[in-house]
């Protein structure tokens, strides 16, 4: 059973937070564009994933802005850790989601910014600073894509659906479940990271399935997908929060989402 969030009962996201989120994305974009395709050094983190000075500097800039304007807010960032996670409002930041694409000169990465209120996502931004595309979602408002309303497309049958996943290797412990879904869709493609969620919100693809994600990888997408008419849950159909397990399924059509979850074993 899909556990969709009852967004109608949530308070409308304050405009002042939307304004700050937009400025955070602008600041991160300045850094990303400065270092993109410049041959910068790649650093290997403890988990063998790559990071660059652009990731770290972009997050530092965003954290400084949040601390200056809302010192009581918490922050969870991919590069610089957690600060005041128990605060009423917590910003969740991924300065460059898709660092592997970034270091390869492929403009399919993006900045992810989410704001969580008492554990519930109320705001999200996906920003692609090189192409100049931005999706903004927030509780009480329609998702906007580059200044116009974004709408997912209807697709009630898996046999007609287009599926995206960042990599088939992220399902190493759930290969059978993912293959059950992959072999049921019309077209399956890999890559894209957060950019695939933007294309789902824009009505260009139908399903995004991921595994092994952290909160900074998925929380920004919640309000974006929902505000465009879609659904984003874990594989069991549960609403997403700071402590979700990292197996994510997003669908543009709510009816299609139920079919996808059945294939995944939810």
User: Count the helices. How many?
Assistant: 7
- Cα-atom Rg, whole angstroms? 17 Å
Total domain modules: 2
Report the average pLDDT across residues. 94
Describe it.
- The protein has helices at 15-35, 53-69, 99-103, 175-182, 194-201, 215-227, 254-264; strands at 43-44, 50-51, 74-77, 81-83, 89-97, 110-117, 120-128, 133-138, 144-145, 148-149, 162-165, 187-190, 207-210, 231-234, 248-251.
- By secondary structure, the chain is α+β, with helices and mostly antiparallel strands.
- A hairpin with a 2-residue loop joins β6 (110-117) and β7 (120-128).
- The longest helix is centred in the N-terminal third of the chain and has 21 residues, at 15-35.
Write the layout of secondary structure elements.
Layout: H1 15-35, E1 43-44, E2 50-51, H2 53-69, E3 74-77, E4 81-83, E5 89-97, H3 99-103, E6 110-117, E7 120-128, E8 133-138, E9 144-145, E10 148-149, E11 162-165, H4 175-182, E12 187-190, H5 194-201, E13 207-210, H6 215-227, E14 231-234, E15 248-251, H7 254-264
Parallel strand pairs: 3-5, 11-12, 11-13
Antiparallel strand pairs: 1-2, 3-4, 5-6, 6-7, 7-8, 8-9, 9-10, 13-15, 14-15
Helix pairs in contact: 1-2, 5-6
